[in-house]
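Dear colleague,

Thank you for sharing your sequence with our group. We've completed the structure prediction you requested, and as agreed, I am returning the results in plain text so they can be pasted directly into your records. Please verify that the sequence below matches your submission; if there's any discrepancy, let me know and we will rerun it promptly.
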Amino acid sequence: MAAVTDKLRVGLILGTVREGRLSLRVSTFMKKQLEKRNFDVLLLDPEELDLPLLKQPIFFYSDPSQIPDEINRINSLLDKCDCFVFVCGEYNHCIPPPLTNYRPFWCQSMGLQA
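Please find the predicted structure tokens below.
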């Protein structure tokens, strides 16, 4: 959690990878607006993360040395966030598949359960 004098850190998380997606435009706009208001913004795009299909959430690993390096790297970034904003469209009355796949990797960081 940020100290009183520090900027609050927002994890801005995109939920789609579809070509022509609008979430990239919306998140770029949101990032600029948040930065104007003195927030530190971490933008996470599943298109750039290239995560594998979820087989096991991070909190299921009994041996932390077995957690893939990329998962640990992103988990440590998310641990530094004070709040999260998800940017995604509706997909058949549900959240998009990329968000469904990669959200459980870090539920522990977000104080959530998968």
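Summary note from our side: The chain has a mean pLDDT of 80.

Kind regards,
the structure core
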